[in-house]
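Blackboard transcription, Thursday session:
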Amino acid sequence: MKTTFISIILLSSLLAISFAGCKKDEDDKKKDPNHLGWVYDPTPYTGPTVPRNFPQPTYAANNNPLTEEGVLLGRMLFYDPILSGDSTLACAGCHKQENAFTDTRTFSIGIDGIAGRRQSMPLFNLMYSSKFFWDGRAANLAELALMPVEDPIEMHETWPNNIAKLQAHPDYPKRFYEAFGVEPNDLTKEYAAKALEQFLLSLVSGNSKFDKAVRGTDELTAAEERGFILFNDQLGADCFHCHGDGSANQVFQEINAIRQFRNNGLDAPATPAGFADKGFGEFTGNINDYGKFKVPSLRNLKFTAPYMHDGRFATLEEVIDHYSTGVKAASPNIDAGGMEYAFQGGVQLTAQEKADLIAFLLSLSDDDFVTDPRFSDPFK
Amino acid sequence: MRYLRLFIPALLLVVMSSSCEKDPEIGTTTFTLAVHPKIASQDLVLGQEYLDQESYRLMPSTLRFYVSHVTLTSANGDTEIRDIALLDMEQVEAGEPLTFEVEVPAGDYTGISFWVGLDSLQNASDPATFVNGHPLSLSTGTFWTWNTGYRFVMLEGYYDDVQNTPGPVSTSRFFNYHTGTAPLYKQAELGAANVAFTIAEGERFTYNLDLDVNKMFYGLENIDRAQGAVTHTTSNYALAQKFTENFVRAFSLSAP
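(Written on the board underneath:)
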């Protein structure tokens, strides 16, 4: 009898202690570490989410749910030159909102005046990617966010320096606490990466003319309609093999993780080793990946010139000419999945078809996205 | 009261164990259809070069296909599996078989049959309604467009059109067979690979089949890659049909 009660009491106490432990941790986090009125009680993010004509996101957010505080902090870090070596260049310096977060320069210039070797990539709808940069070297957005800071030809700063700068800042320690419950002394680059990851994931673009037409609030012109049909016709422009089919995948980018890197026949060195830029192969080390690059989204092309990984095409006309007659069939590792018409240089479009296709592609541009105040410089 | 002392921990154990994975139903056992991609007797590894049976060098880079309506035939009534499998070499380690694991009743079976591809209803699915990772979701990269449905079989790679070249294979000469549409939904022609088997209760059973890339090109009708390297079905239906007929005959029983 006595042992029964002891068992019950012990079990109850264990349960009570474990619950109390959870609650205490929460309460402690909400407490103000420096008695400055700080509160860690983040609000779930309520900004733009996945448009209803988009498929389910494929990006696996790494235990980093979006919050109002986290997204705002990420946005501040994105626009603040404090993270660069001489505090002159922010992420936004080469990823401009008016250009769908890319750069109009063929190659962006870092703080030491050195140009990069690839075009700055636009940033939106990143929840459908699984490897980042033209060469796929970042496995997630938190990794991506850390890299340009330490790149000597970009922001050229160390993270330990940046953490010291952020800890000494009059405002950031409080914001990190409010977003993540991290005390200033415990601040690490991973928290900055989490904030930037949240802001990057908040960059949703899904309000183009095409989207509005899908939702019944706008109409495509006859030329845009014809372009859309060409886009999806494998006897036409045959774009859909690599850029989404426009029916189920209206993100207009490759969603399948393995097929996000392809060689579209821009160059034809005699051997794979001859590629001036080995792209995805530079990251994987696999000779069969030399010359492959990330398949980009076809949204917002109105704002993102120049095109291709090296910005070689200044206009959409040049891009379409490449796929029409300029594909180099002899390119090593040319994509076996999508470049069906490489043998004849491309899909052979007429002038009218090219014009229709461009009209359709431009209907995928989202003017609201490039002016949305939720994504703009928070310091202005 | 003495029992109460035992009852509480027992209850806790029951509650805890009830959250674990569901056990198979009584009388059923785990059946695995294991497909071993080969080139003749060699294991197929994507990105590696082989000489085919006519000594042409080739390097497959993608092999994935749907298997549906797997049926285990029995004198006591057939067992048809409702699930669909997308067997994809990019999802397994090199040298590992492509597997489809299901629960079936234990017992004596007279054979097996399955279809390559998706039936008309499955093929009319909206991929957006499936969670990522599901064989019919967009994440698999098999959905084509709303008017053609899914790609049933995807074989891609590179080849040389001259026999006995020393290698490496020219990666600027590719082959690409994407088959789909209702007429190319075919039952696998297993022939001698369809054999009787017994599944003992409580024991796992694996039915091993080889799938020979040679037979996809040298089958019912030979496919000369130099003359017919690419089809996305509607772009070259005759070639897609030829490839499909060969593909469904490319299975054989694995050596024990």
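Lecturer's comment: The two ends of chain B are 60 Å apart (CA to CA).
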